[in-house]
Design goal:
mainly alpha
Length: 423
């Protein structure tokens, strides 16, 4: 153990204690407001739905505390507990080359980590989601998804890991810059490929059949300048009753996707308003801004790793006895979230700002009242709490809390009426 070990343990303890304290506050606050629907939602959300949302939130939050403790314990076992060292020695004993050994360590570590997290995801799906009536995933679907995910990890992860380690081994002092270019290019390629080639491995997609709704959506897309390869309905109901909508892909391979559960829950005006919000992210360049942010952070991270990889204390401080490129990469991937956790509130605030801006765009282009009605329905159907703890929501929430978001939309709708524009 060295000074970096103590810094790592301190940051891990701080982040874990903060997570547990925030979760405790959130569960207590939601539970205390369980029996009264907030005034702005009375007559729109039933008392039964409000209590269900509170109970679901409390159950999920409490389970999240166990997940945090479990994740911290696994991290200590992998690092200071010698787990990565044992895995490294096992692959070194196979007598493979340096790059091949590194690929084996990286990919097997990722698969083992996923396997160790399996009990938690199983419990969440088949106990918590089942208890509140959201789960429709069968054991067969669950296991099939796992097998497909593992196969996809191997098919994509092995070549990527090989290229990265090959660059790290032979590209000199600026290897981190070349690795960043490969990783960022790979990420863009996956975003392009996801809608047409990856998502269909897990879900079925069919073209939107409602001619009237399709015509309205196409008119909205034309107004926004959004070129799409199609409007599809996804069989989300095979796994869950939660509803959602999104557009995926980049460049010439973008798709509009509605969950079938969302189509069943909302009327045409509400669906159009929800899509207007999503298209607001496109028109306001939020996707590009987020990509640029991810690119910058990853570049800075790899530049930092380029320095850390030469520091013996980095390896010994995290329990690795034999320095190597792949071990440095693994240790960095595991430890970076611990040191970066305190950035969460700033990133959440930026995301909420984008959501407010997308709401404002939707309110300018479509009926703000329809978006409010859609949000209320989705909050109720998805059992999203209407009374989150203020500090918890400021720290974590990527979307504004329900009451603040809807109040802002009502204000914007009132402004449009005062200006003589249709709401």
């Amino acid at each position: 153990m060295n000074a970096f070990t103590y810094l790592f343990l301190f940051m891990l303890a701080v982040s874990l204690m903060l997570k547990l304290w925030l979760a405790h506050r959130h569960a207590r606050h939601v539970g205390a407001h369980r029996d009264r629907v907030p005034a702005e939602f009375q007559g729109k959300v039933s008392e039964h739905a409000h209590r269900k949302a509170a109970d679901y939130t409390v159950a999920s939050t409490r389970f999240g505390r166990l997940e945090n403790i479990y994740a911290a314990a696994l991290l200590l076992l992998w690092t200071l507990g010698g787990g990565l060292d044992l895995l490294d020695e096992a692959w070194r004993a196979a007598g493979l080359g340096t790059v091949s050994t590194g690929v084996g360590v990286l990919v097997s570590a990722m698969l083992i980590m996923a396997l160790l997290e399996l009990p938690l995801s199983t419990y969440h799906t088949f106990v918590i989601e089942q208890r509140f009536g959201f789960n429709r995933t069968t054991p067969t679907i669950f296991l099939t998804d796992l097998a497909k995910s593992a196969a996809l990890t191997l098919a994509l992860g092995v070549p990527l890991a090989w290229v990265v380690l090959w660059i790290m081994q032979g590209a000199g002092a600026l290897w981190w810059l070349y690795v960043w270019a490969v990783w960022f290019g790979f990420s863009l390629a996956m975003m392009w490929a996801y809608p047409a080639f990856i998502a269909p491995l897990f879900n079925r997609f069919r073209p939107l059949g409602d001619a009237g709704l399709k015509s309205r959506i196409e008119r909205l897309l034309n107004e926004c300048g959004f070129k799409s390869n199609g409007i599809f309905v996804m069989d989300g109901s095979r796994r869950s009753t939660h509803g959602n909508a999104y557009f995926g892909g980049i460049g010439n391979n973008k798709r509009i996707v509605f969950f079938d559960t969302l189509i069943d829950q909302l009327d045409g005006d509400e669906i159009e308003a929800v899509l207007a919000h999503e298209l607001g992210h496109f028109r306001l360049h939020h996707i590009r801004k987020r990509l640029a942010g991810v690119g910058l952070f990853s570049l800075l991270g790899l530049a930092l790793l380029g320095w850390l990889i030469e520091q013996p204390w980095f390896y010994t401080g995290l329990g690795a006895s034999r320095p190597s490129d792949y071990m440095a990469l693994l240790l960095f991937m595991l430890s970076a979230p611990v040191f970066g956790f305190l950035l969460t509130p700033a990133l959440s605030a930026l995301s909420r700002r984008h959501e407010f801006e997308a709401d404002a765009y939707a309110a300018r282009t479509r009926d703000a009242g329809a978006l409010v009605r859609a949000l209320v329905k989705l909050y109720e159907e998805n059992a999203s709490t209407l009374t989150p703890d203020p500090l918890y929501s400021r720290f974590y929430y990527s979307h504004p809390p329900a009451s603040i978001r809807i109040e802002q939309l009502k204000h914007q709708s009132g402004q449009r009426l005062a200006e003589g524009a249709p709401a």
